[in-house]
Design goal:
With about 425 residues, the chain is α+β, with helices and mostly antiparallel strands. Helices cover about 40% and strands about 20% of the residues. It folds into two domains: about 300 residues, BirA Bifunctional Protein, domain 2 (2-Layer Sandwich); about 90 residues, Anticodon-binding domain (Rossmann fold). Helix 1 runs antiparallel to helix 4 and helix 1 packs across helix 12. The structure holds one RNA strand of 75 nucleotides.
Amino acid sequence: MASFQTVKGFRDFYPEDCALRNHIFDVWRSVARRYGFIEYEAPVVESTDLYKKKSGDEITGQLFCFKDKKGRDISLRPEVTPSLARMATARQRHYGKPMKWFQIGSCFRYEEPQKGRTREFNQFNADIIGDASPAADAELVALAIDVMLALGMKKDDFVIRLSDRRLWSHFLEEQKIDADKTAAFLQVIDKMEKVPESVTAEKLEGIGLTLAQVRAFIDGASEAHAVFAPLRENLSARGLWEYVKIDPGIVRGLAYYTGAVFEVFDLKHGLRAVAGGGRYDNLCGLLGGTEMPCTGFAMGDVVLGEMLKQTPGAQFAITDGLLKAFALDVYVVVADETARSHALAAVHELRRAGIRADYAFGAQKVGKQFQAAEERKARFAVIFGAEFPTVKVKNLTARSESPVSSAHLVTTLQQMLQAPDVGPLIA
RNA sequence: GUGACCGUAGUUCAAAGGUAGAGCCCCAGAUUGUGAUUCUGGUUGUUGCGGGUUCGAAUCCCGUCGGUCACCCCA
């Protein structure tokens, strides 16, 4: 038993776990680039004030905060949006609009770990800065859908639940409810699905509304509502509207969203939201920068990982990713120790040519070396023995072997690796 | 922050107050130039940690640290 345990809520990434994580990162990165997003990164540690300013003092309970050696109050980032707002406003004149930026990295929240929640997690953030049009919101919804599809999800595995904060501000205006009750009201809506009706009704009465009024409004807010028209038109043109479900109950916890909001939900395993985001046109100004319209979303690796493991459609992509992480192209077998220096030279040359090659450090039985080649999922073995400068190249899946002059080894293997791997021949 | 359950070999799990064990994995050999199977042998423990009860604790009690799950919260 090891003397040390991981710090509560933090994870070890053994090679298998790391391969899954990297597979997720690869998909995030490649789809975002396909959409013309550009990668950036922000500090993992920021002044605690940056987060207090955005969300209020009471938020420090969930912040991973501490004093540094000079007594400065700093925090591990719980999210990246405040850093992005700072960076974007500071240099916004240097970048043409709209700025389509994405980021991948770890975030930290000091909370009790449970299903789908750890204290350290990786997030994919995609944001569009400097564009107030619904086309920008639609672009992000489309990106979120394509990320899910690229991960191997099918249409019936997930849904985008779409809403708009303006629906509710109009509603409250019509009902002549004070604007300062908005936050409390949205909290009630956010929890409606979970808490008993009676509790919801009671809280609504405290605000000056009835449950029936709210219910009627939710039922009336169909796809046809004018506020969704531009998004529906945009996403329909891409054939993506079928992934979207209008759901006014989605309001997204905290107060800074100003327009469209959406979440990505798993449909089959009762997990919490996989991703969420929306339009936040006031945040840059709130943090003391230039006022700029912004919209964006974040997707975390923890819930997503749970979902991938439980979704059959994603399995192939996962095992493929594992294979990519582990597999060698070539294993060099030293059958005769007098040939070791020639073998070492060949390994080096293969590696310089971009071929993944490995070998045994010391003298080992040939059988053992083949076993190692098998374990590392090598496609080919090259046997260096007494017949050098001739070597044997063995196709480990087909189990066929042929002699090759060592002078032509690299070019021969490059050609052989080009050919598709047909798998074992059936006898 | 609150509560429930859990923690034994690298791993999965036995041992229900009386000598800490098994499967798998790993290592070596059978097998001196070819991957499988099989067989043989081998390593591995302060039972998470600390205290208490007891003649005696993996087992019961208290604390603590981790894990899992739920509440709170969810940017």
